[in-house]
Write a structure and sequence with these properties.
Layout (H helix, E strand, L loop, with lengths): L1 E4 L5 E6 L4 H14 L4 E6 L7 H14 L2 E4 L9 H14 L3 E4 L3 H10 L4 E6 L6 E4 L2 E4 L3 H16 L1
Parallel strand pairs: 2-6, 3-4, 3-6, 4-5
Antiparallel strand pairs: 1-2, 7-8
Length: 160
């Protein structure tokens, strides 16, 4: 787990490898304890071709605990990213949660940070991985940490 704070202290970004029900439960529990009263924004996706129940579990937890959930690519492999996100969104909705689907992970992280001041942004799943699996290929990408730092820098430039 890594945490980063915006220049003005209004945005806390937590990059975590949480990727299953237990790790999401613990992440939400600790976030609520450490940052009482802060909005929680979650950015995540689920891998394609495996762990189907994870989509339900994480969608329900995010819908229950997040002000907004940003659904995005997380090693979609043989499946379409949007299809995976739509499936998860159905579970977010069951908990009356709000969500946005942004297939590009970097854009999802950027939007979550720039559109949600005074929040804790939880970016889960990929952490410091430098590739995404699309089909049978692994394509290079920035780490979640680098995406977050870039967005925090843009937030600072927009504010100043």
């Amino acid at each position: 787990m890594e945490s980063h704070v915006s220049y003005d202290g209004s945005i806390i970004v937590i990059v975590d490898y949480a990727h299953n029900k237990l790790s999401f439960e613990k992440l939400y529990e600790s976030t609520k304890q450490e940052y009482p009263g802060k909005k929680i924004i979650t950015v995540f996706g689920c891998p394609g071709g495996k762990a189907q129940l994870r989509r339900r579990d994480l969608g329900l937890l995010s819908g229950k605990n997040s002000t907004v959930t940003y659904l995005t690519a997380e090693d979609p492999g043989p499946e379409d990213t949007i299809d995976i996100c739509k499936e998860i969104a159905g579970y977010v909705e069951q908990e009356h949660g709000s969500y946005k689907i942004i297939a590009d992970r970097g854009e999802a992280i950027k939007n979550a940070i720039l559109q949600n001041p005074n929040s804790v942004i939880l970016i889960t799943g990929k952490g410091n991985e430098t590739r995404q699996k699309y089909g049978k290929e692994y394509l290079p990408c920035l780490t979640d940490t680098q995406y977050a730092l870039n967005a925090l820098e843009e937030y600072k430039k927009l504010a100043l």
